[in-house]
Design goal:
This protein has 28 helices and 34 strands. It is an alpha+beta fold. InterPro entries: Beta-prop_Vps41, Clathrin_H-chain/VPS_repeat, TPR-like_helical_dom_sf, Vps41, Vps41/Vps8, WD40/YVTN_repeat-like_dom_sf, WD40_repeat_dom_sf, Znf_RING.
C-alpha cells in the first residue's frame, strides 16, 4: 500500500506512520499530486462540494454556491456566482460547450459557456443532481434531467419551449444520475434504475443491498464503463451490470433491453467513487479505524484501490492510502471520484483538497527502481524505452549504477558495466580509470578497457601495466597477451620488464612476457633466444609465423632436444629453407637425433636421403632395430654388402636371412633359418616365397632326421610339393609327433584339390557349351544385303545395278561384304576364306562365310 503525503506542512495533519511504499517491494500503479495554483486559493476560503472533469478543463462547485472553470493545472479561467448555498452537481456535455448546475436552494441552470442563454429555474425543493444529454450541443431537443424528489426530463419542443416529463417519483430523493448515449441511470433510496430514452422504457431496477445505511450519508456511486456496462457501488458492495438486447421472440410486453449482473462482490470499506481502467476498476474507499484511546471509530485516510473484478469476488492489484487535508473530519459523502476518459487521470475530491492520480509512466517506473536501488533494472528499462523517457538519461542512470556498485564494494561488476555505460565517451573513461586507481582497483577495470577502434591515451594503459608489474606478474603477462601491442609505448614497457628481470633473472613469466614484447616490436631473434632458453611451446609457432629459419640453422640441436617430433616435422616441411645436408651436418654429433630426422625423411620419401642410406644402416642397428628390416626392404639405394656385414657383426639373423636371399644366396639363408632360428614354419614360408624346387629338397633333407620338422612339413607342404616325396624318405620306425593328424590333413587337402578341379571342370564345360550355343545362334542369323551396302574391297555397291545378271557376293560373319571376284584366292585350304579386314585376328569372327549366288 502506498501513501500520498501532504506537500504543504500542517502540523495537525502530520502522520507518524512511515510510508508503506518505502517498505514495499511492489511498485505502485499510480502516482499522485495535489491540484494547486488557483485551486489552492479557492479551497482556503471555500470548500469543494462537487467537480466535473472534461478533457480540456475542470468545473468545480463550492459550498458557497460558486462554480469555477479551471484548466488542467488548476488555474482559474472563469467564475460563476450561481447561489449562496452549496452547489450539488455540475454536468457537462461531451463537447464541453454547455453546462448544467443545480444547488441546494433548488436552483437549476443550463447554459452555454459562450452564451448565457439557456434554462434557469428555481424549485421549491433542493435539486441534488442534474445531467445533460451527452450530445446536448448538437441535439435539437436540448434534453437534460434533474433529480430531487422526482426525476424530471426537460426538452425543447418545436415552439422552442421547454417541455417537462416525469420519468420517476415516489421512492425518495434521487442522489445520483449518469447519462450515457440513450441510457439514463439514477439512484434513489430504493435502488438503481435505468431508463432507455430511445424507447422511453425503464428497463431495470437494481435494489441496494445494505438498507441499514443512510442513503444521504453513504450515497450510491455510478459509472458507465461503456455504452452498455454500468458499474454500481453502494455501501461496501459493487455490481457490474450489462445492458443486453432481448430476443424479439421473448419481448411480448417486456422492454427491448434487459440488464444482467455479470459481477457482484463485497469490499472491505465503504465506496465513495468508481472509475474504469481498461478491464480493471479504480475504487475510492472511505475508511474508519478504531481508536487506541477511545472506544469509537475515527475517520482514516481514504484509499484508492485498483481491483480486478471477478464474477463473485475481486482481486486487489494495488492499494494506496491518501493523506488528504482534513481527512479526519470528512465523511463518506464528502468524497467523490471523477475521471477523464481521454487520459487516465483520476480526481479525488474532498472539501479541502483535490488530488490527481495518474498512471505511472516509464520515467516514474525508473524513479521507483532507482529509489529501491534496483539500478540494473532501471538501466535496462531506460535502454528499452529511451525514446519515450523524458526526465531520465540512460548514461546518467548507468553512472549512478556504477557509483552504487563501487560504494558497495562490487568493483568487478562496476568495471564490467563501464563498457556498456561509458560507450565512446573518452573523458568519462579516463575519469573512471583514475577513480579506480584512487581506490586501488585498477586490476578490476583493466580487462574492460576499450582496445579496438576506440582507444584511450597510451599513458592510461601504461599506468595499468606498471601497476600489474609491481604486484602481479601473471596478470601483467595476461594483459600483454590480450592487449594489442600498439596500445602503449612498447619500449617503455620492455625497459620496465628488463629492470624487474635484473632483480629476478630466472622468472619464467617475465621472460615469456619479454619475448612477447620483443615479438610485438619485431625483434624476433631476441624473442627466439628467450623461447629456446625457456623451452617454450610457442617457439615453433614463432618460427613459422615470422619465417625465422635462417636464425635457427645453428639451433637445430636445441630445437630437437626440446621436442624432436615437432622439430623434425618443421625441418622436413621447410626443406627449401633449411637443406637436408645442413640438418645432417648440425646433427652429426648427435646420432640419436640424426636417426630420428633421417627415419622420418625416409618415411616421407624413399629417395630424397638416398646418399645417407648407408649411414642409416648403422643408425637403425644402433637405435631402432625393429625398423631396420622394413628399411632394408624398402630402400633401393642401400649397399647390400655393407648391410650384410653390419647384420652379421651384430648377429641379426632375420635381417641377414633377408640380405642373403636378396643377394641370391637362398640356400645359405635357408640354412640360417634352420640352424640359427630352428623355425620350420619360417623355413617353409621362405621356401614358398622363393618357389625353388632345390630349396624344398634342401629343406626336406635337413628336416628328415628331425621329427618336429617333419610334422611341420607334412602340415604345410601339400600345396607346393608332392607329399609322397617326403613320406618315402622318412626312415622306418621313426616316431613322428601327430603323424596321424598330419596324414589326415594331407588327404583332406588332396580331396579338397580334387573337388576344386572337378568344380572348375564343370564350370568350364558349362561356359564352353553356353558360348558354343551363343556362337551357333549368331552364325545362324540372316544378314540383310541391300543397295546401301558396299564391297569392302572395291567400295562399290555390293549389288549390281542390273539385278537380272548373275552375281556372286561373299558375306562374312563379321558383317564385312565382298564381291567374290574381289577376294583373293582361298590359299592352302580349298574352300576356306578369311575376311581381309579381320585377318589379323587369327580364326576371328570373320572366319565363317555366307555366300550368295544368283
Amino acid at each position: 500500500m502506498a501513501e500520498v503525503e501532504e506537500q504543504v506542512s500542517h502540523p495537525s495533519e502530520e502522520t507518524t506512520d512511515e510510508s508503506e511504499e518505502e517498505d514495499s517491494e511492489e511498485e505502485p500503479k499510480l502516482k499522485y499530486e495535489r491540484l494547486s495554483n488557483g485551486m489552492t486559493e479557492i479551497l482556503q476560503n471555500d470548500a469543494a462540494s462537487c467537480m466535473t472533469v472534461h478533457d480540456k478543463f475542470l468545473a468545480l462547485g463550492t459550498h458557497f454556491g460558486k462554480v469555477f472553470l479551471l484548466d488542467i493545472q488548476g488555474n482559474i479561467t472563469q467564475k460563476f456566482e450561481i447561489s449562496s448555498v452549496k452547489i450539488n452537481q455540475i454536468s457537462l456535455d461531451e463537447s464541453g460547450e454547455h453546462v448544467g448546475i443545480c444547488s441546494e436552494d433548488g436552483k437549476v441552470q443550463v447554459f452555454g459557456l459562450y452564451t448565457r442563454e439557456g434554462f434557469h429555474e428555481n424549485f421549491d425543493c433542493p435539486i441534488k443532481v442534474v445531467a445533460l444529454h451527452p450530445q446536448f450541443t448538437r441535439s435539437n431537443y436540448k434534453q437534460f434531467v434533474t433529480g430531487g424528489n422526482k426525476l424530471l426530463l426537460y426538452e425543447r419542443n418545436w415552439l422552442n419551449r421547454w417541455k417537462t416529463s416525469v420519468l420517476h417519483e415516489g421512492e425518495g430523493t434521487i442522489t445520483n444520475i449518469k447519462w450515457r448515449a440513450n441510457l439514463i441511470a439514477w439512484a434513489n433510496n430504493v435502488g438503481v434504475k435505468i431508463y432507455d430514452i430511445s424507447t422511453k422504457q425503464r428497463i431495470t431496477n437494481v435494489l441496494r443491498d445494505n438498507v441499514s445505511l443512510r442513503p444521504d450519508m453513504y450515497p450510491c456511486s455510478l459509472c458507465w464503463k461503456d455504452n452498455t456496462t454500468l458499474i454500481v457501488g453502494w455501501g461496501s458492495s459493487i455490481k457490474i451490470c450489462a445492458v443486453k438486447e432481448r430476443n424479439p421472440t421473448e419481448m411480448r410486453d417486456l422492454p427491448s433491453r434487459y440488464v444482467e449482473i455479470v459481477s457482484a462482490f463485497e469490499t472491505e470499506f465503504f465506496i465513495c467513487g468508481l472509475a474504469p481502467l481498461a478491464d480493471q476498476l479504480v475504487t475510492l474507499f472511505f475508511v474508519k479505524e478504531n481508536s487506541d484511546q477511545m472506544d469509537e471509530e475515527l475517520c482514516a485516510r481514504p484509499r484508492l484501490d485498483i481491483i480486478q473484478p471477478l464474477p463473485e469476488s475481486c482481486e486487489e492489484i494495488s492499494s494506496d492510502a491518501l493523506t488528504v487535508r482534513n481527512f479526519q473530519d470528512n465523511e463518506c459523502r464528502d468524497y467523490r471520484l471523477e475521471h477523464s476518459e481521454g487520459e487516465s487521470l483520476f480526481y479525488i475530491i474532498s472539501p479541502k483538497d483535490i488530488v490527481v492520480a495518474k498512471e505511472r509512466d516509464q520515467d516514474d517506473h525508473i524513479d521507483w527502481l532507482v529509489q529501491k536501488k534496483k539500478y540494473e533494472e532501471a538501466l535496462m528499462a531506460a535502454e528499452i524505452s529511451f525514446k519515450n523517457i523524458k526526465r531520465h538519461d540512460v548514461q546518467k542512470i548507468g553512472m549512478d549504477y556504477i557509483n552504487h556498485l563501487v560504494d558497495t564494494g562490487d568493483y568487478d561488476s562496476a568495471a564490467r558495466k563501464c563498457q556498456k555505460v561509458l560507450g565512446k565517451n573518452m573523458e568519462l573513461w579516463e575519469n573512471e580509470v583514475y577513480r579506480f586507481k584512487t581506490i586501488g582497483q585498477l586490476k578490476a577495470i583493466s580487462q574492460y578497457l576499450p582496445r579496438g577502434d576506440l582507444r584511450l591515451r597510451p599513458a592510461i594503459y601504461e599506468m595499468i601495466l606498471h601497476e600489474f608489474l609491481k604486484t602481479d606478474y601473471e596478470g601483467f603477462a595476461t594483459l600483454i597477451r590480450e592487449w594489442p601491442g600498439d596500445l602503449y609505448n612498447n619500449m617503455a614497457i620492455v625497459q620496465a620488464v628488463t629492470d624487474h628481470l635484473k632483480r629476478d633473472p630466472t622468472n619464467s613469466t617475465l621472460l615469456t612476457t619479454l619475448a612477447e614484447l620483443y615479438t610485438y616490436d619485431q625483434r624476433y631473434d631476441r624473442a627466439l633466444e628467450i623461447y629456446l632458453r625457456l623451452r617454450h611451446k610457442d617457439v615453433y609457432q614463432l618460427i613459422h609465423k615470422h619465417d625465422l629459419f635462417s636464425s635457427i640453422e645453428d639451433k637445430i640441436v636445441l630445437l630437437m632436444d626440446f621436442d624432436k617430433e615437432k622439430a623434425v616435422d618443421m625441418l622436413l616441411d621447410n626443406e627449401d629453407k633449411i637443406s637436408i645436408d645442413k640438418v645432417v651436418e648440425e646433427l652429426a654429433d648427435r646420432p640419436g637425433l640424426l636417426h630420428v630426422y633421417l627415419h622420418k625423411l625416409f618415411k616421407r620419401d624413399h629417395h630424397k636421403g638416398q646418399k645417407y642410406h648407408e649411414r642409416q644402416i648403422g643408425l637403425y642397428a644402433e637405435y631402432d632395430r625393429p625398423n631396420l628390416l622394413p628399411f632394408l626392404r624398402d630402400s633401393t639405394h642401400c649397399p647390400l654388402e655393407k648391410a650384410l656385414e653390419i647384420c652379421q657383426q651384430r648377429n641379426f639373423v632375420e635381417e641377414t636371412v633377408f640380405l642373403l636371399s636378396r643377394m641370391g644366396n637362398c640356400r645359405r639363408a635357408l640354412q640360417m633359418i634352420m640352424e640359427e632360428l630352428a623355425d620350420v614354419d619360417k623355413a617353409i614360408e621362405f621356401a614358398k616365397d622363393q618357389d625353388d624346387a632345390e630349396l624344398w629338397d634342401d629343406l626336406i633333407s635337413y628336416s628328415i632326421d628331425k621329427p618336429p620338422f617333419i610334422t611341420g612339413l607334412l602340415n604345410n607342404i601339400g600345396t607346393h610339393v608332392d607329399p609322397i616325396l617326403l613320406i618315402r624318405r622318412i626312415k622306418e620306425g621313426m616316431e613322428i609327433p601327430n603323424l596321424r593328424d598330419s596324414l589326415v590333413k594331407i588327404l583332406h587337402d588332396y580331396n579338397l584339390q580334387i573337388l576344386l578341379r572337378e568344380g572348375c571342370k564343370k564350370i568350364l564345360v558349362a561356359d564352353s557349351l553356353s558360348l558354343l550355343q551363343k556362337m551357333h545362334r549368331t552364325q545362324m542369323r540372316g544378314v540383310r544385303v541391300d543397295e546401301e551396302n558396299i564391297c569392302e574391297s572395291c567400295h562399290t555397291s555390293i549389288l549390281p545395278s542390273d539385278m537380272a545378271k548373275t552375281f556372286n557376293v561373299v558375306v562374312f560373319h563379321c558383317r564385312h561384304m565382298f564381291h567374290k571376284e574381289c577376294l583373293p584366292s582361298s590359299g592352302t585350304i580349298p574352300g576356306l576364306q578369311f575376311c581381309n579386314i579381320c585377318s589379323a585376328k587369327r580364326r576371328g569372327p570373320g572366319s565363317g562365310i555366307l555366300e550368295m549366288k544368283k
